[in-house]
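Researcher: Here's a chain I'd like modeled. Treat it as a single chain, no partners, no ligands.
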Amino acid sequence: MEKSIIIGDFKYDITNFKHPGGGVIHYFNDGQDATMTFDEFHYRSKKAKQILKTLPCERVILNKNDADKEMLEDFVEFRKSLEMRGYFRPSYLHVYYRLFEIFAIYLVAAVSIKYNIVASVFLFGLCSGRTGWLQHEGGHNSLTTNIKIDKEIQSFFIGFFMFGDGSMWNNMHNKHHATPQKIGHDIDLDTAPLVAFYDSSSENNQMSQMKKLWLKYQAYTFLPLTSGLLVMPFWSFYLHPKKVFRDKNIKQALYILAGHVVRICLFLKIMPMSLFNACLYHFMAIWISGIYLFGHFSLSHTFTPTIDKNENPNWVRYAIEHTVDISPNNRFVGWFMGYLNNQVIHHLFPSMPQVYGREVSRELLLFCKKWDIKYNIISYFQAWDYMLKNLNSVGELMST
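Model: Modeled as a single isolated chain. Structure tokens:
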């Protein structure tokens, strides 16, 4: 079956094209305009533009009757103004701080083993969680904005401190960015029966009484069980290592192995204990990082309206209407959420260093007022309230 997408003034045949980053390109419908998506995903990539030139293409005349035509043209100008004012250039001081922070927390966690094992485990978990935010930005090439350096930073940090694989993360995460809240496409959304974020998420899953019971109480189990005890260990000990072995990625395998071994040995060396206890503390830190990371990942979009498989909102409406910004002017919330509290900004400009989100949010507010678009801004505690209430209401519905 032939398939094509539109980028700029050309329609490209992608029928037999295998995207280096996975199957995300085939999430687009035949003939869909993917111009903004391509530009944002590959803003700094010369390789992507070279590959695009090799695909069969033909010039097309785009539909000029799009109701959002003027808004989208204005958005392009808005983005250009941000670029001209340096919002897509890196803040090296911020990058150095982010790197230092990870090593500092890890060091304090190691020293704390001797004095307070509970604090140590918590800090190791926090370190892995903070690493999650850092490597995420490396995957978007928005840390140093040098693709090679950012990918190396991501590779080391996600491997040693988080026991994962950068390419696996990017493959999964880019699918979410391309189609947030789209049923059957957003990998962050279609997670039933483990967790159901929307009221039709179990339509294609045979619902046993056990599954219904699990979903009924998912608002209570989501953080301690689903995020900490199931998803994070599954990622750390199976999903990501499996990808590493399949790719024969020796360097990444060594990063992951070293991360596990060093932390367990620190427990054994600093406070003499059994290997079982050392592994238990290691696992508890992984549990804490899972709660911290996946809990916060769910705050920015899981309770927003879903999109049907056949709907294709443009890039701007996708981001603004199906994600939220959380206390964008609160510096502590920004730090605690790894600067991803400005999720709308991040979805509009994934290649923008996230440290600028707070400033750009103020300008986006004016843009949205101009075009009568609802810009969803909520507080940190409102986000938790909306997310957990959504889990509870969906769980109750699915269990009947």
